[in-house]
Amino acid sequence: MQSPILITGAGQRIGLALAKSLLANKQPLIVTYRTRHNSIDELEAAGVKCIEADFTSDEAIADFITQLKRTTSSLRAIIHNASSWDCEGNNPDFAQLFDNMMRIHAKVPYLINMACAQLLQNSSAEHSDIIHLTDYVVEKGSPKHIAYAASKAALDNLTKSFAAQLAPKVKVNSIAPSLIIFNEHDSAQYREKTLKKSILGLEPGSQEIVNTVALLLNSHYITGRTLPVDGGRHLK
Ligand SMILES: NC(=O)C1=CN([C@@H]2O[C@H](COP(=O)(O)OP(=O)(O)OC[C@H]3O[C@@H](n4cnc5c(N)ncnc54)[C@H](OP(=O)(O)O)[C@@H]3O)[C@@H](O)[C@H]2O)C=CC1
Ligand SMILES: Nc1nc2c(c(=O)[nH]1)N=C([C@H](O)[C@@H](O)CO)CN2
């Protein structure tokens, strides 16, 4: 029996695309969701263990970990996807924003990884994986998303530490996307400006991350690294 893969924040967009792709390959899944999108009903009907988790406090994180450990004794992989793309322009309470960004992007992955290392070791697969979804802005910062970028940089650093600590059984890597999919509310002006930020100039869609996750899951020799998925944005 294959050990399940855990995906956090799988109710929509990239996380949901990852869940659907892995499910299509008969991979057992456990997902977290905050909002009960219709997609969660569909995943549940398809046999996915869906755990409600709004990671807004240490207690909520601990409660999720307790539920997870009641659900499985092993894990093939953990994909830390849950994220909030919030910014200083939307939040005058910078202290609260900073705490929220650090919690969802660094504290949640840190605490789950610390608590679940043995579950990953228990997998019957040759390797287990932790995959952190970071962001291109780890490389250069982001003047309009300062706390967000710093929190993703913290997550990037966790990749290196956990890779060293959990080798050789567990590989730990980051995927650092730039634009993958726009949000529904993004204006035509924002879309045009954003597409010009990379030298490939396109909105690739979630499949690009699905492919990158598959590459990492099938690798036997990549760990402690970041795979950039950014259309050559660094060359602009
Ligand atoms: N989309 C893109 O172009 C890019 C994405 N990335 C990264 O890729 C990953 C996936 O991106 P995308 O699909 O756009 O992500 P979303 O912005 O759609 O968020 C993913 C999920 O995270 C959940 N979430 C947010 N806050 C919390 C919380 N406090 N507790 C629990 N769950 C929470 C959301 O729940 P709910 O459904 O309730 O809102 C949502 O379903 C993210 O880590 C993102 O930072 C990086 C660069 C570009
Ligand atoms: N949690 C999220 N993080 C990010 C998103 C998003 O929609 N949700 N979007 C981006 C942008 O696409 C950016 O990469 C390009 O403007 C970044 N992070």
What labels describe this entry?
236 residues, alpha/beta, Rossmann fold, 7-stranded parallel sheet, 7 helices, 7 strands, globular, binds NADPH dihydro-nicotinamide-adenine-dinucleotide phosphate, binds ligand LV4SOB2L
Task: Explain briefly what this protein structure is.
Helix content is 44%, strand content 14%. With 236 residues, it is α/β, with parallel strands linked by helices.
Question: What does this molecule look like?
Answer:
This protein is α/β, with parallel strands linked by helices. It is 44% helix and 14% strand. The protein has helices at residues 13-24, 38-45, 58-71, 94-121, 146-166, 188-195, 207-218, and strands spanning 5-7, 29-33, 49-52, 77-80, 128-133, 170-177, 226-229. Strand 5 (128-133), helix 5 (146-166) and strand 6 (170-177) form a beta-alpha-beta unit. The longest helix is centred in the middle third of the chain and has 28 residues, at 94-121. The radius of gyration is 17 Å and the shape is globular. The N and C termini lie far apart (47 Å). The mean pLDDT is 98. The structure holds NADPH dihydro-nicotinamide-adenine-dinucleotide phosphate and the ligand Nc1nc2c(c(=O)[nH]1)N=C([C@H](O)[C@@H](O)CO)CN2.
